[in-house]
Amino acid sequence: MLSENVRKALVEAGLTSSEIQAYATLIEWGGLTAKEVSRYANLPFSKIYQILNSLERKGWIETVESRPTRYYAKPPMEALSTVKLEMEEKIRTWEETIQRELQPLFEKKGLQEKPDIWILRGEKAITSKIEEVVSKAKMELMVAVPAFAKNLVKQAYPFLKALEKSRVHVSIMVDGKPEEWKALNALSLAGAQVRLREQMFGGGIIIDSKEVLLLLGEEKPSLVIWANHKGLVRFARDYFQFLWESSRKLS
Predict the structure, then answer these.
(1) 165-182 mean pLDDT
(2) Is 126 within 8 Å of 225 (Cβ atoms)?
(3) pTM assigned to the model
(4) β-pair type (32-33, 70-73)
């Protein structure tokens, strides 16, 4: 009754193949005794209590005391939320341990990250890079457009438009007068968040919190930098969010 995609997801969530079989059987049949789970799921009775106890410990089933004890499947999303909380707690513990013990060792040895950082020159190279980063966004795209970069970013409209049917969360912040950005109204109606502010001294595009394209200049982009340096991307994202909070919706 389970597709391969569901089975794969349950394995990645921490269940064994026997536990998946037992859980699926309880979903199909409702409350069952251990003996019935063994028979309906075609699992060895000698291992059934071990399987059921493990499922209960992991939060996927619950028991009702009776003679004999009956087992019930918990709602899948409820069980998954328990797994999610446990994973988040594990990750928090990993972060604390690594930050406390491993990071100081890394810094003490003087090791350095080796991220990619490119300086782009020429309108064609810059435009091509903008189109590339916009088109490969999977989750989130944050775009800050100062007045001097208006024409460059407008060339990326078709790629921004193509994101309408995706699940990418698009935030666009522009510099200038509302009438200069009428073309963005269509993107706003399609689900993108568009805001206006005055005097942006630089701009950029942040892709999935993994890459950043910085646009610097006065009358035109005089320095364009692409990087995947985590610290630089995080700083750019935080600064974008700071500016976003004090901007206003494009009317």
Answers:
(1) 76
(2) no
(3) 0.53
(4) antiparallel
